[in-house]
Amino acid sequence: MSMRLDHTHDPAARSWVESANQGGCAFPLQNLPFGVFRRAGSTEAFRGGVALGDCVIDLKALTAVGGLSGMAEQAAFACANPQLNDFFAMGPLAWRALRHALFALFKADDLAVRGGPSRDELMRCLVPQREAEYALPAQIGDYTDFYTSVDHARNIVKLMRPDGTLSPNFQWMPVAYHGRVSSIGLSGQSVRRPVGQRLAPGRQEPEFGACAKLDYELELGIFIGVGNEQGTRIPVEAAAEHVFGLCLLNDWSARDIQAWESTPLGPFLAKNFATTISPWIVTMDALAPFSMAWTRPAGEPQPLEYLALTAVGNQAAFDIQLEVSIETASARRNGKGASRLSRTSFRHQYWSIAQMVAHHTVGGCNLRAGDLLGSGTISGPGASEAGALIELSRAGQAPVELADGERRSFLEDGDRVVIRGWCERAGFASIGFGENRSEVLPAKWE
């Protein structure tokens, strides 16, 4: 994906919001991710905000102090809405104009020299994150979940077939299915264990009941910015102009229900009960320093022409570090912390974001501002880099040992799944995604 570095990536730049300069801060001045918020417990309307340090920049308040002009001001007005769809639809020039304006306003230099609002006026546009509550950042019209990690695919196939052979189409196209929008929720939600049909080993007839093999899937959510008209397609080299940014995504999966219902069409009840995303969207501009060359292993099929990354392949992959932890109910009662399950990087993905977008639209499908794509489970080549419990536990054959002595083959009621993401590279400021946290509740179907 074609992106560029500019002054907003300067690692020496510091903010006058001191919390943004602290080591380990997920939201330094070089990040500036977007979300939707209001003061917790208030009746205020939700509106767009940008994370900086431990604060939220209230974009609606910022328009009132006169700190913006031109395209940046128009973009901020679009962000004053309860969803960011109108802002997304404005396109890369508007996204970048607002990013640059915010960078200038909150950079640690002499405001008086360049004019504009005073420091006190800008401080009144800041809301502490501890006092904020969040909503879905966009009206998500459609949700497509991909299947693009070759390591995940091979791990799963080995559990099902001794030869471990991938399905023939996996190496030729980014496989996907259409997901359920109504059950997409935000970090902090409680997820009810689903119920459905499952076929027990050795049985000829299915049984109905609560899922016994509940799992998470470590993914990234990809928010579409500018859409395309129905009947047209987005070329792979133009995908960067259509993707606004990324968030953390947990694609909850009921493995026992999934195994029974997925032939011949694919997952249904196994996936439609919940998908959880993090509140902050890290923009593609913020991720530019962490892009890297996309490669296909030697000896494997090369993409067909419409998926070939000839012009943009040197920036099509992203080194985004990802980590999954589990906090059990017992650990909370005993005052113990979460146990890390795995850590990997998005750079291992077999298909890139640009290829997902190009394939999605090649037949004339129209994407719209605010549409969400799931990257598919993100697993790396190492045993500790698996993006789901079914891989880590080998479908329950080798339960995972947790730090407090407990074991997990699949998730139990009361478990909290925590996903974190960040980027780091020598010569650049590290940036983060925050976290995606949610808790499993017991099934309820009566």
Structure characteristics:
alpha+beta; SH3 type barrels; Fumarylacetoacetate hydrolase, domain 2; 2 domains; eight-stranded mixed β-sheet; five-stranded antiparallel β-sheet; 26% strand
How is this structure best described in words?
There is one protein chain. With 446 residues, the protein is an alpha+beta fold. The chain folds into two domains: 15-135, SH3 type barrels (Roll), CATH 2.30.30; 143-441, Fumarylacetoacetate hydrolase, domain 2 (Alpha-Beta Complex), CATH 3.90.850.10. 19% of the residues lie in helices and 26% in strands. The chain contains twelve helices and 26 strands. It has helices spanning 59-64, 70-79, 85-90, 92-106, 111-114, 119-123, 150-160, 255-261, 284-287, 329-333, 353-361, 389-392, and strands at 34-39, 47-52, 55-58, 126-128, 132-135, 143-147, 175-178, 184-186, 190-192, 195-198, 207-210, 214-215, 218-224, 243-250, 253-254, 275-277, 282-283, 291-292, 317-318, 321-327, 339-345, 372-374, 400-401, 407-408, 416-423, 431-441. The strands form seven sheets. Strands 6, 7, 8, 13, 14, 16, 17 and 22 form an eight-stranded mixed beta sheet that branches. Strands 4-3-2-1-5 form a five-stranded antiparallel beta sheet. A hairpin with a 7-residue loop joins β25 (416-423) and β26. α2 packs across α4 (92-106). The longest helix has 15 residues, at 92-106. The protein is globular. It starts with 33 loop residues before the first strand and ends in a 5-residue tail after the last strand. The model has no long low-confidence stretch (mean pLDDT 95).
